[in-house]
Amino acid sequence: MEFSLVVALIAVASSCVFVHFLARGATKKRRSPAAKKLPPGSLGLPVIGQSLGLLRAMRSNSGERWVRRRIDRYGAVSKLSLFGKPTVLVAGAAANRFVFFSGALALQQPRSVQRILGDRSILDLVGADHRRVRGALSEFLRPEMLRMYVGKIDGEARRHVAGCWSGRAAVTVMPLMKRLTFDIIASLLFGLGPGAAARDALAGDFERVMGGMWAVPVDLPFTAFRRSLRAAARARRLLAGITRERKAALERGAATRSSDLIACLLSLTDDRGGAPLLSEEEIVDTAMVALVAGHDTSSILMTFMVRHLANDPDTLAAMVQEHEEIARSKRDGEALTWEDLTRMKLTWRVAQETLRIVPPIFGNFRRALEDIELDGYVIPKGWQVFWVASVTHMDAAIFHDPDKFLPSRFDSQSSSPATAKAAPPCSYVAFGGGPRICPGIEFARIETLVMMHHLVRKFRWKLCCKEDTFARDPMPTPLHGLPIEIEPRISP
User: What's a Gene Ontology MF term here (predicted)?
Assistant: First the structure.
């Protein structure tokens, strides 16, 4: 596998050999004797750099140790080469703050992601265009809008539990959670309810899209990337058709701004003459990003909550009690409401602690738009900047006993040592931070709380695999998708 990866990297990035050396040469030319120096470290071999070492570490769930060894050797700021590009690794809360708030850095996505999600996606826009598209997406994701959708999410969760969990002795958690989050997104974002043919078609294409999202971007027959590109093209055509249908429905009064994400985006206009705020291409690209982003984070979070609770009976018992109290206050079959979610405080603390220990995103890249300085070093224009969530999440100076699962550390009323000292800003970065902080935090919270409400009340479970491990490829995936044995729970 590693040999084929090397070949593919060389095939798609051979020109980066020249970029690699030009970056060194150009940097030397720009620097005067008084200029700041480059960070310590090595760019390694052309094109390959340290990419294989990082990928191996992530797949063996030792990525945190890999990063920590670099920090121990070179410090909090060091240079290396990842995926054919000169890169600077930055570490710590101050470095996170620099990455999240610097106007001289733009988000840097792998070429495979850019090709699949579109050129006008929010992930690649900068400046005014980014603020405009993000503002449009945030309009749909405002709490005032989302509180209207709690009942619909509850309905999807009930159907999912009844159809995929009830009456079974064993299930595999991760694929089920991925299907649940897809169904919720298809319903709320695109108006595709249960049984819709377009929903099933989009589900099949979406699985192929995700299969090549992080693949080496070699556009050749029989590659995962080619299959992903073709599936993405079909998904985009489907979403473009939904966009035109929703536009017509809005014009004749058959849909409203709150019908779904597409209707919301179509309804937004600028401040100058009421022209549409987003083009059709931007709406489709935004919908593609929302589909991908909303799918992985929530499904991974819920999967790893199930994984942890299987070995933590005390926390699980406390969660069951929290949800039974909510259930007793409602009539049989009555849907959950926004007010019910506000009472699920322990459950969300468990979710936050799960995200601290197993953040869905290992790290991310930015691109330097100009020469910038950090801690006395220069980061040349065009270089990547790489930050990693686990650096602060697992720092004992920030989080007491970081290897322990302690949801109480997120309880502001707790008197435990875990919360005796508040974590500094930009140290808990499960959702990123700054202007590009994940706009779907509240959406993920609703999905998670609703699903866990039904899961902990209806079932007991235990892990089927004694080896409780996971790998990153690049998202965290538990061994065999986390198979568990389940049995009905008799409510008190």
Answer: monooxygenase activity
Q: With H, G, I as helix, E, B as strand and everything else as coil, classify residue 358.
A: coil
Low-confidence stretches of the chain (pLDDT < 50) are 1-34, 492
* Residue 170 dihedral angles phi and psi, to the nearest 5°: -155, 150
Q: Is 438 annotated as a binding residue?
A: yes
State pLDDT tens for residues 213-265: 777 677 888 888 899 999 999 999 999 999 999 999 999 999 988 888 899 98
Tokens of 62: 């030792």
Q: Are 374 and 77 in contact (CB under 8 A)?
A: yes
Q: Tell me the sheet residues that pair with 82.
A: 85
Domains of the chain: residue spans and CATH = 2-91 (no CATH), 127-488 (1.10.630.10)
Instruction: Give the CA distances from residue 470 to residues 35, 240, 393, 448, in Å, rounded to whole numbers and listed in that order.
Output: 44, 37, 18, 21
CB 20 within 8 A of CB 47: yes
Which amino acid makes up residue 19? Answer: V
Q: With left for phi above 0 and alpha for psi between -120 and 50, is residue 272 left, alpha or beta?
A: beta
3-state DSSP call for residue 352?
A: helix
- Neighbouring C-alpha atoms within 13 Å toward the C-beta of 4: 6
Instruction: Quote the tokens at residue 8.
Output: 């593919």
Q: Is 381 helix (H, G, I), strand (E, B) or coil?
A: coil
- What distance, in Å, lies between the first and last C-alpha atoms of the chain? 52
What does the buried/exposed string (b/e) look like for 473-492 if buried means 16 or more CB atoms within 10 Å of the residue's CB?
ebbbbbbebbebebeeeeee
Closest alpha carbon to 365 in 75, 42, 41, 112:
112
| Amino acid (1-letter code) at residue 61 | N
